Amino acid sequence: MYNMDHPVLELRGVSRHYPGHRAVDDVSLQLERGVLFTLLGPSGCGKTTTLRLIGGFESPTGGEILLNGARIDARKPYHRNVSTVFQNYALFPHLSAGENIAFGLRRRGARDLERRLAAVVELVQLAGKESRRPAQLSGGERQRVALARSLVLEPDVLLLDEPLSALDPKLRRQVREELKSLQRRVGITFLLVTHDQEEALSLSDRIAVMNRGRLEQVGTPEEVYLKPRTRFVAGFLGAVNWIDDVGVRPEATRISAAPPGPEVRSVAATVESSVFLGHCLQVRARLADGAAVVSEISRLGGSFRDGEAVHLWWRPQDELRLPTETE
Amino acid sequence: MTRLRLLFLAPSAVLLAVLLAAPIAIVAVSSALTRGTYGGLGLPWTIENYARLLDPLYAWILLRSAALAGAATLLCLLVGFPMALFLTRAGRRRNLCLCLVMLPFWTSFLVRTYAWMFLLRDTGLVNTVLQSVGLIRDPLPLLYNDGAVVLGLVYGYLPFMILPIYAALERLDPSLAEASADLGARPWTTVTLVLAPLAWPGILAGCLLVFIPCLGAYLTPDLLGGGKSVMVGNLVQNQFTNARDWPFGSAVSVALLALVMLLLLTLLRRRAEELL
Amino acid sequence: MSRPLALYAAGVYAFLHLPLVALGAFSFNSSRFTVWEGFSLEWYRALWRDPALAEAAWNSLHIALAATAVATVLGTLCAYGLWKRASGWFSATLYLSLVTPEIVMGISLLAFYQYLFRFLDVRLGMHTVILAHVVFCLAYVVLVVLARLRTLDPHLEEAAMDLGAGEFEAFRRVTLPLAMPGIGAAALLAFTISFDDYVITSLVAGVDSETLPMMIYAMARRGANPVVNAISSLIVFGLGALILVAERLRES
Q1: Chain B with chain C: Cβ pairs closer than 8 A
Q2: C192 chain-B contacts, CB cut-off 8 A
């Protein structure tokens, strides 16, 4: 049944153009089975549109979408073996949690409905709450109903639209870990969309960074963070200081009063302010040419007075040499 | 998704085409024909019927209708605006207060018009009460005149003025009124210089929503005006029944409908109401 | 809330409600004059005994039920279609049916029917009235149901299709049940409007289809008649109760 020769989901040059606006522009992706893949980008970059194209709620204006090697871009949502968890969950308010979860199974006329229902309820830890209406459940519980509703159908790919954004900030970290372990347990390919880079980095096996409808880079979290291919990717995944056309992340910099050795690169700087952030010291300094730099150093490296002249240095291997964006 | 949608819209489309568009088209066509010998329709084609509208007799009726509708609209505005203001300050009882305003309107227009006949007749309640208290000796002729018609129109369409104004006031930032007071404006000034201008779309909507039906009113001038307060609606009805002059009646109808549609366009252009 | 405004509001409420209250009160007056002479159910008894009135009431009920049923079904489907994607033409036509003065709608239907009777062998009767009522009730149904549909999450139908339901099934199992309160309210509204109609009905009714409003109109025209007070009160309070139920449904 599973065709091991093909990636489970493939996008070939997929585009969604509107008059005057290219929401998705020539996007090509391949997802392996069982991976937790994230589409990361700022709002308006086309990630949600891409998700909707895969789900079948919009049609591509160009390109192909293949699921297990077969083209699905002409099929309606109910004929695709992918399932979507919507941003606000879209739970049917007039049905109980259990009825919501059973909905897709009933459409298919599944014979072992009761058993599968019980299994998935157990999986998402909602046992005992099946008879409640969505309005009577907490935000986290509603998300689990939405997950269960889609997972019980065993889709080839589960699509999640900003799954953590509707949740309480305090809840997010916990749910993030639960989501990751859930994915590991069921082994289904997850395609997640988010604008939060911390979320993407902590959850994903692979990340695709999007900007203005186009893919900027695809890679593992380490690859996109440490070896960004464009300045946009570098800046979106974390903070970057651009010193004379060379990029250095704040946490890769060090500060010392005395000049460092020749094996590292350094510049002269004047400390402007220091902020104690708890896990690090954030120092703002100004270079001779007036450029501002932010440095995040360990507290154990000493402290510096405002106005002090210091040396800011970093290892060559931590440099990001990337061309400026050509518009 | 479009096939289902077209299927769903089709029956209504057919209904509206056959029973709304076609009849109106027939009336439009009739307005250019001539009255037959026995009151039917016949050729030749003519613009005579529209020319007759400019006849002082009929032009006067059109102007009267506009004037009466205008008077009713103005009264509705004066009476309705403070009421809308009251509703915005009704607090927790708001829904109840709103309901009490709307409820009479949705019962029976006919009965509500008749109720004023009951009150204003020579032997009606008002006269009886005034006579029994000794304020008057002979009954006052309160019914069967323009005043009674305007009163009936105001009574009938007041909620149509109150609701849009209320909706517009409701949407205003409450801190605007507070700022106005903070800067020294008395309540009356706040209302006239701050609230009313900002609620202008609602006021416009209310005026049009009252004026349009008042212009085409038939029942109210018929019952409360007797034969003496003829509005356009009565003219049309007369042409189609007693006078049996269908072409002319059609011309009057077309003129009325055209005017009403023009007013509706104004309403929709200003985005004052987007219901459908 | 200032005192004057509250008093003013009380005055307006009095203006709106007292005429009907007075009508209702005097329907229990034992005398036929507007001087209170004692409580009596005489006029209600007269209503009960009048066969013409009973027939008119029955006609009104029949017409209203039939027109409501058709208008509600058609209107709900129409509202759904417009909710999915707006149509300028359609909305314009519905607006037209709302703003067209009743007298114009009535005479145009009369002209239409007369034209039709040259080709088909039908006369003015119950069906002509019912069809006319469906036309003018339709826009109100669409208005109420569309307002209700707009409160629904548009993703719900997408979710249903995502889970395997076809378009019609998504409508039937998700949208329709959630729109029910609005549909119910729309039906009650249509009933009220149809039951109360005089102008259009009087123009397109046949000899055998006299309705209650037509009778009331005739009686009102003839002069003071306490029986009119009784029937009027019944109508107002009956329809008023229906509207209250409709409001409850609309807000649920």
Answers
A1: 248
A2: 106-107
Would C186 be classed as within a structural domain?
yes
Count of domains for chain C: 2
Position C47 in a domain: no
Residue position matching structure tokens 């050509």: A326
Query: Which 3 state secondary structure label does DSSP give C210?
Result: coil
Please identify every stretch of chain C with a pLDDT value under 50, giving residue numbers as ranges: none
> What pLDDT score does A135 carry?
93
CA distance C12 to C14: 5
- A25-67 confidence digits (pLDDT tens): 999 999 999 999 999 999 999 999 999 999 998 999 999 999 9
Q: Which residues contact A24 (CB under 8 A, 6 or more apart)?
A: A14, A15, A16, A46, A49, A50, A53, A60, A213
Give pTM, 2 decimals.
0.84
Q: How far is C108 from chain B (nearest CA, A)?
A: 5
Query: Over chain A, what HEC string results?
Result: CCCCCCCCEEEEEEEEEECCEEEEEEEEEEECCCCEEEEECCCCCCHHHHHHHHHCCCCCCEEEEEECCEECCCCCHHHCCEEEECCCCCCCCCCCHHHHHHHHHHHHCCCCHHHHHHHHHHHCCCCCCCCCCHHHCCHHHHHHHHHHHHHCCCCCEEEEECCCCCCCHHHHHHHHHHHHHHHHHHCCEEEEEECCHHHHHHHCCEEEEEECCEEEEEECHHHHHHCCCCHHHHHHHCCCEEECCEEECHHHCEEECCCCCCCCEEEEEEEEEEEECCCCEEEEEEECCCCEEEEEECHHHCCCCCCCEEEEEECHHHCECCCCCCC
Distance from CA of B3 to the nearest CA of C (A): 10
Same domain for C105 and C184, yes or no, is yes
- Do C185 and C88 lie in a common domain? yes
Instruction: Say if C45 falls within a structural domain.
Output: no
H/E stretch holding B42: strand B41-42
CATH number for the domain that contains residue C85: 1.10.3720.10
d(Cα A299, Cα A288) in Å, to the nearest integer?
A: 25
Work out the minimum CA distance from B124 to partner chain C, whole angstroms.
6
Domain that holds residue C35: 1-40
Domain identity same for C17 and C100: no
Q: Which residues have a Cβ under 8 Å from the Cβ of B33 and sit 6 or more positions away?
A: B41, B42, B43, B44, B45, B46, B247
Closest alpha carbon within chain C to A159: C162
Rounded distance between C-alpha atoms, residue C82 and residue C142, angstroms = 9
- Domain membership of residue C3 (yes or no) is yes
Residue A1 pLDDT > 60: no
Domain-wise residue ranges, chain B? 47-275
Q: Are residues C31 and C113 in the same domain?
A: no
Whether residues B86 and C109 touch (CB distance < 8 A) is answered with no
**A224 within 8 A of A237, measured Cβ to Cβ:** yes
Asked whether residue C20 falls in the same domain as residue C139, the answer is no
Contacts of A289 (CB under 8 A, 6+ apart): none
Distance CA C204, CA C215 (A): 15
Q: Are residues C124 and C243 in the same domain?
A: yes
Per-residue pLDDT tens digits for C180-218: 999 999 999 999 999 999 999 999 998 888 999 999 999
Does C165 touch chain A if contact means CB atoms closer than 8 Å? yes
Picking from B2, B16, B219, the nearest residue to C93 by CB comes out as B16
Residues C127 and C35 in one domain: no
Average pLDDT over residues B40-44: 78
Q: Which contiguous run of DSSP H or E holds residue B35?
A: strand B34-35
Query: C158 CB near a chain A CB, below 8 Å?
Result: yes
| pLDDT of amino acid B274 | 60
Q: What is B47-275's CATH number, 1.20.140.10, 1.10.3720.10, 1.10.10.10, 3.40.1000.20?
A: 1.10.3720.10
